[in-house]
Amino acid sequence: MKPSEIKIEKCPGGGECATQMHFARAGTITDAMRAVAESEQLTPEQVRREVAAGTLVIPANSVRLAAGVLRPIGIGLSCRCKINANLGNSPLGSDVESELHKLEVALRFGADTVMDLSTGRDIEAIRRAILARSPAPVGTVPIYEALTRVERAEDLTPELLLDVIAAQAEQGVDFMTIHAGILLEHIPLTTQRVTGIVSRGGVALAKWMLARHEQNPLYTHFDAILDIARRYDVTLSLGDGLRPGCLADANDAAQFAELGVLGELTLRAWQRDVQVMIEGPGHVPLDKIAVNVEKQREQCHGAPFYVLGPLVTDVAAGHDHIASAIGGALAAWAGAALLCYVTPREHLGLPDIEDVKEGVIAHKIAAHAADIARGRRDARARDDAMSRARFDFDWETQFALALDPERPRAMHDHAVGANESFSAAPYCTMCGEKFCSLRASRDLREGLKRTRKED
After folding, report:
1. Residues 130, 50 share a domain
2. Which DSSP helix (H) or strand (E) runs through 280?
3. Who has the most CB within 10 Å: 59, 62, 188, 245?
4. Is residue 411 part of a domain?
5. Residue 61 sits in which domain range?
6. Are 229 and 367 contained in the same domain?
7. Looking at the structure, do residues 257 and 168 belong to the same domain, yes or no?
8. Would you say residue 320 lies in a domain?
9. Which element (helix H / strand E) includes 325?
């Protein structure tokens, strides 16, 4: 189903709730649900049931659906594991065209969702351009834009935060990170951490609460946020403002205290038919990843889990996309539904085009590996086709099946060099003709066939 073919359902009897969860609970299968069912090889009724239960979300702002731009996707354990690519400028660089180029590369190599995390100039223009160009769901962190409008975090007001959330929803943002789970009483729990509070939104809210001795305004005004989300069907990505920023801080009291609040907020959102997914860490050792997923599923009632990494080591600077993909594969196997990519430039600077490509591919590998391990229907079909192509020395099919077709083709062409006759040879330059095990296996197979015929 093409985006332009998606029909927008209207609420029975009118009203201001236009969410997929609202329709699902009313027994209505929307076109967006049908599109997800078709792409995920599920029945429309299964999609409806899971959206109604909150275990599957369809981030699809009604404004973008009406514009015919958005291609609806499902995020949940019954669907393929999805990956998100972060875009956006910083106060130190990038512009609209640069971010659109990153968007194009991210989508080309397999990003399922994108987030505009701009904190520099022209935030609204960049977001508007990405929303107009992206068929994938687009997310934001509204507090970033709010922070650009004040001198200090302490100057934020609930009214400003709600104004920014409402404006972004009206513009068409499909999902938003809302750091409503970090509370005033959680802040002392972070004082013994090695890296403190690493979430930009989380630390801004912590500074605001300590300066004013008041509770988190996103928590106290959560019902107003739900009103906005209901009107435009914005999926709330409940943010982990206290995620661990290093291995030493993983699974601590602060992280899990916030998670408990996110579980409470999930139920409050569901009571208003608002879709929710939960954000998770962060930096976590391999042996603690499964515990994170299990706690999230238990405390947040099965809402889809969206993890940043997690990075499994703190010493992979320049290669953090690999550390993140390792953790992401494990998290997805354990039950995470959406992986947020990390690029090689994590902790070092704003990603460039090549960083975006490397980050997307690394996490696409992680998500695909998890789908295979979870036994998802037909997840291994592409791998089996690749194996057959390798055994047949069918180079073109191998290139076409690769997650990054450009790189293996370039590597193969480099190996061929000036010897053009090698391009069709039944062996590669690693082993050559004499030591090629696949060639030898083919010869053995042919020999056995001849032997059987003679017998």
Report:
1. no
2. strand 276-280
3. 59
4. yes
5. 3-67
6. yes
7. yes
8. yes
9. helix 320-334
In a shared domain, residues 398 and 262: no
Place of tokens 């939960």: 278
**Has residue 75 been placed in a domain?**
no
Tokens of 7: 């029909």
Q: Which of the 8 DSSP states describes residue 285?
A: -
Question: Does 73 fall in a domain?
Answer: no
End-to-end CA distance of the chain: 56
The encoded tokens of residue 259 equal: 């998670």
The values of phi and psi at residue 76, to 5°, are 170, 170
Which of 11, 45, 67 is the endpoint of a domain?
Answer: 67
- Give SS3 for 379: coil
Nearest Cα neighbor of 65 from 143, 5, 121 is 5
Largest CA distance in the chain: 91
Report whether 386 contacts 401 (CB < 8 A): yes
pLDDT along the chain (455 residues), means of 10: 57 67 97 97 98 98 94 97 95 87 97 96 94 98 97 97 98 98 98 97 98 98 97 97 98 98 98 98 97 97 97 98 98 98 95 96 98 93 95 91 92 73 66 80 82 74
Asked if 58 contacts 20 with a C-beta cutoff of 8 angstroms, the reply is yes
With beta carbons less than 8 A apart as the criterion, state whether 55 and 303 touch. yes
The secondary structure of residue 413, as a DSSP letter, is: H
Is 335 in contact with 297 (CB distance < 8 Å)?
A: yes
Same domain, 329 and 445: no
Question: Closest by alpha carbon to 107, among 364, 345, 315, 427?
Answer: 364
Query: Model pTM greater than 0.70?
Result: yes
> What confidence score (pLDDT) does residue 118 get?
93
Work out how many domains the chain is built from and give that number. 3
Residue identified by tokens 């009203």 is 15
Task: Kindly report the number of other CB atoms within 10 A of residue 269's CB atom.
Answer: 26
